[in-house]
């Protein structure tokens, strides 16, 4: 089963490749969520390799490696530019890097003890298949830990665009219940989750959109408008969104689902 609004994988790869240079400046929420993820679900005591999916520029990788003691850490990302930035920022740390697609893991069966993924799973087109492959590569007593966006993410931006047309302008995300069902179907057990809503403030809608662009978080749904958005459409959306300003700022909500599942 795939998302109703299927993702454009080449566009995802291109977006994150292009975003690498300015990613860290725009990634405050990603860093906050990554730190919380590791605090909520710390490394296991078992020996064995730790795999991070979608490592980006290496913030969570650095935290994991700092706690991993002598355990091997493998950081994977679909964009070579992200891996290059991560290697540079984490120079001197014992981390291996792999440029690959999280949906097609080039990893041997039963060789990974733990998998971490921070705000990555929402970019996977076939999430049930991803979980099945994660289950394949994990060892006995291994665990999968990740944070992903939920359906209430950017609900204010969705509502503003809905006044303009019926196209999908904002990426759509699975609910915690749906994700849990996918995990169970893949053979995972002891599935636990916690959902938090982060509300970030921006001086304007354009400031929000610049941040999303800096993160590589473009609209990658195949049901997006095939034509370029006109200036009039964009202005109408902005006026609708900014009509609800609080203290001269707009609010953008991010629903984040923290999950852990065991083999």
UniProtKB/TrEMBL annotation:
<feature type="domain" description="Methyltransferase type 11">
    <location>
        <begin position="51"/>
        <end position="146"/>
    </location>
</feature>
<comment type="function">
    <text>Converts the free carboxyl group of a malonyl-thioester to its methyl ester by transfer of a methyl group from S-adenosyl-L-methionine (SAM). It allows to synthesize pimeloyl-ACP via the fatty acid synthetic pathway.</text>
</comment>
<dbReference type="InterPro" id="IPR029063">
    <property type="entry name" value="SAM-dependent_MTases_sf"/>
</dbReference>
<dbReference type="GO" id="GO:0032259">
    <property type="term" value="P:methylation"/>
</dbReference>
<keyword id="KW-0093">Biotin biosynthesis</keyword>
<keyword id="KW-0489">Methyltransferase</keyword>
<dbReference type="GO" id="GO:0008757">
    <property type="term" value="F:S-adenosylmethionine-dependent methyltransferase activity"/>
</dbReference>
<dbReference type="InterPro" id="IPR013216">
    <property type="entry name" value="Methyltransf_11"/>
</dbReference>
<dbReference type="GO" id="GO:0010340">
    <property type="term" value="F:carboxyl-O-methyltransferase activity"/>
</dbReference>
<keyword id="KW-0808">Transferase</keyword>
<dbReference type="Pfam" id="PF08241">
    <property type="entry name" value="Methyltransf_11"/>
</dbReference>
<comment type="pathway">
    <text>Cofactor biosynthesis; biotin biosynthesis.</text>
</comment>
<dbReference type="InterPro" id="IPR050602">
    <property type="entry name" value="Malonyl-ACP_OMT"/>
</dbReference>
<dbReference type="GO" id="GO:0102130">
    <property type="term" value="F:malonyl-CoA methyltransferase activity"/>
</dbReference>
<dbReference type="InterPro" id="IPR011814">
    <property type="entry name" value="BioC"/>
</dbReference>
<keyword id="KW-0949">S-adenosyl-L-methionine</keyword>
<dbReference type="GO" id="GO:0009102">
    <property type="term" value="P:biotin biosynthetic process"/>
</dbReference>
<protein>
    <recommendedName>
        <fullName>Malonyl-[acyl-carrier protein] O-methyltransferase</fullName>
        <ecNumber>2.1.1.197</ecNumber>
    </recommendedName>
</protein>
<comment type="similarity">
    <text>Belongs to the methyltransferase superfamily.</text>
</comment>
